[in-house]
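hi! just following up on the protien thing from before. the input was this:
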Amino acid sequence: MKQLYRHLFIFFLFVITGLHANAKILADSTTSDSTNLAAKIHALHEKVTSEGRLTTSFKETDLANLPIGIVKDIGGKRYIIAIDKARFTPQGAFFDAYISLPVPFSKKPLAFKAQNVAFQPGGLAKSGMMRLTLASKHERDISSKIKLVLPAEGERNFIEWDCNGFKSVNLKGEFEFSKDMLISDDPKKDKVTATFEVNTGDPGSIITAVSITPFQVKTLKGFSFEVQEAIVDYSDIANPTSIRFPKDYEDDPQLALLWQGFYLKKLSVTLPEELLTKNGRAKIQAENLIIDKAGVSGTFSAINIFNSETGTLDGWPLSVTDLSVTLLKDKLAGAGFKGELTLPIFNNPMGYEALIYNENKETNYLFSVQTGKSFKAPILGADIELDSSSFIKISKIDGRFRPEAILNGKASVKSGGVNFKELHFRKLHLATVKPYVRSGIWSLVGEKQEVAEFPVSIHNIVVQHNQQIMKLSADVSLSLMNKEDKGFGAKTRVSVFGEIEEEIIQVGEETVTEQKWVYGGTNIDDINIKVNGGCYKLEGTLSLFDKDQVYGSGFRGQIKATFNPGPMIEVTAQFGSVNKMRYWYTDGKVSLPKPIGTGFGIYGFGGGMYYHMAMQKFDQVTLSDAPVSGNHSLQVGKTQSGVVFVPDASVSLGFRATVMLGTIPSPKPFNGDATFEMAFNSSGGLRYVGFTGQGYFLTELKERNIEKAPMYADLMMLYDFDNKTFHATLDTYVNAYGLVKGIHERGLAGSAVIHFSPDEWYIHIGTPDQRIGLEFVGLVKVGSYFMVGTNIPGMPAPPSQVSEILGDMDLDFMRDENALGSGTGFAFGTAMQIGTGKLKFLMFYGEFEAGLGFDIMLKNYGNAQCAGRSGPIGMNGWYASGQAWAYVMGRIGIRVNMKFIKGEFDILRIGAAAVLQAKLPNPVYMQGVVGGEFSILGGLVKGKCRFKMTIGEECEILGVSETTGIKVISDVSPTDGERDVSVFTTPQVAFTMSIGKAYEILDQENEYKSYRVKLDYFKVKQNGQPIDGEIVWNDSKDVALFKSYEILPPNRPIVAEVKVLWEEKVNGSWKPLGGSGSQEYETESREFKTGAAPKNIPEENVAYSYPVKGQFNFHKNEHNRSYVTLKSGQAYLFNGSDDQGVKWKYLARLYSIHASQVVDVPVAYSSFSGKAGGEVSWTVPQELQPGTVYNVRILKVPAEDKALDSNVNFGADNVYSEDDNSVEVAKAKIEGTLALADDFVLYETYFRTSKYNTFAEKLTAASAEQSIAVFIEGWNLVKLGYSFDSDEILDHSEIYGWKEAKPLVQLEATTGNDWYKKHIYPHLYQHYPPDNEIIISDWKSTDRPQGIPPLRAMNIFQYNRELKVGENEVVGSAVPGTVYFTYDLEYFTYRDYHELTNKAINKYLDGPHTEPVGIRKLLKTNYTNLLSNQDYGFKIMYVLPGGKVTTTRNYNIKF
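and the predicted 3d structure came back as:
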């Protein structure tokens, strides 16, 4: 049967072939001319359509009716596969197939062909689908500005079909855009193209992705567009689901026919060269632009594009804070930007707005700068007010902005003591190229001008400017006294100047000069003063001082004063103003040509006057350090005679008269000054009377100098009438050619003070702390003191050398008595010390010292009483004490300077000391100690001895013991009686010593014993019941916090109680001090009242959260729970019901305005067991969209809705009933009260989801990974690094952490490399610390975050490290960039090595210590630098707040 069909089929073919040939239908349809082929395909399509030669399924019988079309309707359109020219050959039976394919983007259809298609009686020879390929290269003009190009590539441009007709089409090609619309921004391409490939079963509805090459819009030249995501839409029935049409575009009638074109969903826009920054061209992100036959349309905008630190307008700082561009059908419908522009003359910016427009086929800009406000001009120290007539012109020249400023306004110059007001200027022309200041007219309008707070009159003012300097100069006359005092004046010239500094910076391929206009200074020429006051004349020059804390601003200098009658005198003068009070003084001396007198006489006179000033008390003298603009050596406030004056409004006028005295005929043996002074108060009464004197021995009159005079004395006596006080001081300085000199600074031998006032009196001729003494030849020092009166300080302790020789014995035998304070009595003492200093001979050195002294004191201790005795101490409180001491010590050694050992090593050290101390009478107590020590060969042979003797009974003053005076509890907070204390407060106690630490204290027997303080309790109570909580200590254990598990009870009285106990170490164990029954203790308590508890979770109570507040990259699948961790628990917020019976439930509501999405998730609250705090947590919802900003609210919502009548019982009362009749009255009773609850917001946070579900996904997507090595200059070290590019760089919380949470992304070096395993770890850290004293503490703290070993010495860097979501942000786009990781282990280990090695050398090479193994390795090993040809590994970890590690990825740095 099969053979019969085969023969019939062959016969049928011959017949059909003959018929077809005879009919000559399209006999030349298979011509090789591809140009004609497409036309003939379209003609064939027209023939089978017009003649109705159509079928829906091709069969063998259809071969009799060739040509024939297989028709299929798709989406309302008809697609026909035309079959033509069947033929039979020895190789088989074949026919040709064609299609004229209509497409929506072209009026002309596309021609596809399939020749020599094999077939058989059952159908096509091949099973399944066949292909028709594009007949030729097709170019179609979609519009006047867009062309489609489809290459004749059979593999990519084809149609699949079968016997039932069309199945699908695959198209690959590109759209070309006319240069009249888009300009290529790719130097390798002449035109802008959009390539695509699509496979669809509906050719009439093509929507597919396209890749568009970088371009510029012809009407917006300079702006470069780079498309990241675009879609071409040539569909008659739909648009892309996410398309957003530009504003006002919907009004176009073409949308009624369904829009077709290119939808640019995501792209970046690079700003033009004119807005080039120091970091290159700024780039912003854009969305939702369209390109169609009408052109380019859409709006893109951005904020905070660049700041004035990186932006520059030809050298002037420029920021762009807002930019918006709207294109509508290839035209600029609105474009501009704004920001701030800073003129270099000002230090504060001015706002501007710029309009972008197209003119003559170029992009141009029109700037409008807001000039009408106040500015600071530091170059002149001026406040500037610009007129509205000021303007800034910004031109575009050669593709570059060139700004110029024309300014009008007024200035107030206030700097360096100058205060010029109403300084007007016009046409001040500033530019960015030299000359920077091109013109300007200046004038002074105001009348009230000041220099150094003195009123001045301006005679001439000039403002000079050139390429580098701007200078304001004026001739002024000053008024130096108040107007009511009939003052006098002076003349000078004042200049305020500044410099224009230049810095050449690189901006793109060009260099730009940045200007920095800086204040240079204020110059006030010498002030010429000429005054005629009748009985006096003043003439001379003054110099400026400014902004002194005591003296304010003013002038001082040298002036010639002539008194009538009298000679001319050289004087020091000072005129000043402070706190709006003017003052002055003059002070000087005149030497007589010949002395007056015989043997001893007068060499000259001096005197002075002052106004609103007072002589400073000698015991309060503090000389000013105010700078003086001239070359005068005298300090501000100090007179010619050395006396210091200070401003004093209570003093009106004062006078001084001085006599210069000396020996005759030569004043060298002795000369001096004696001065009498009187000052009057503002009411005319006498303020004070004083006498001062200075005496110089072995000094010429012209060579007076305190530091050079062999002997100098300074006396001051003052009686203050207001305070009825007499005070006198005498200072004596000795420096006899270095042989004999005073023992204090600058040769001060000592000071004496006499003081009498209504409250106290005392005479101090030296004190124990500053004795009167001399030093002889640098070897012997002798010092003494004598004190009597009501202010007698405590008995001094013997020198430290005595205590050291006696085994660091505490020799302060008067500690208890001294603790009672100063008192009335007298005291005196003397001490002498002899010391050679260090003597050197060859490599040997020696040093010897000896000393002896005594102190005696008789003092009234009032009612102080000894334990076990009645009555006051001593004789009615008067108690005498004294001590005598002596010591001798010395050493001999050798200096070593070898390669491995350097230093000084003692060969012999010896010392001996003795001390005798006594207190008497009632009771009498004496103590004597003799001791010594020796050390030979650096301690190889050493020893010490001490002999102690006591006589009598030492007074144990009541209330004084070993711990008396030692207050352990320093403070407790909150303070006692404090109200409205926050419920989150952590009560705190501060101690004066570390709790639990042992201390060595001298006991009653002068023996050292170990004591410690123990915390008995730190309790916080309410109503007598302890509140649950924990005690947290600081590192030194001298501060403790009480952290309650939950918040403190609100609106309640709270008591904080602290008790500490003293313990002493007895036979190696700690025992209560004073015995178990009467143990020494100390307590403190504070009572305070708390305020109300908050109805939400305040930010101050949040320890950390996940997501972190403001987190920019939240990976929703990194962890399945979100949480907010609290410092103090707030369980009361999460109760299931309240006092009114309302039931509550708790939700986390996540909502995104941008995504129009709301997700509710149940919330759970849990308290921490055994510690403070709590946690609110919820499941991370999987509905979260990537790259979306979410706000989160933790809500308290009613668990059930209540009807308005839910608490009403309805019923009826039967008021009448008889037979079958009854009457009922309805009733309703309200049970209790009805509580209808609203939602409560307990906490709010916000974050942005990452485009990646996990951090691991982000790491996997990174590209351009590379190793980095940088040489650290000057250290011979290498900083390694690693980097990769990411389309979503890290955010702030990942780099820095948040609150108590560490960074989410953490780095740690791995230890698999040979450098670390074989060199660094075994030599440095394997035995760390090598001993308890040798630790890393100098250059880095022991608790450093890098760790020991420093495996965490790694850091993260990227261009933007501050990525956060703002509180009100709705949309946040991912920020691409490069992430760098630095590997700093070599630097840290190098510093560790040198610190540990230096400490080991100092300890173990200078003594007979046994070296531990760690020390031996340190001293015998040199530091090893990083080894080359190694992989230095590290791991990147994602660590959730709280410490849970969720992702770890290992990397290797190749070096």
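The CA atoms of residues 420 and 449 lie 5 Å apart.
The mean pLDDT is 81.
cheers
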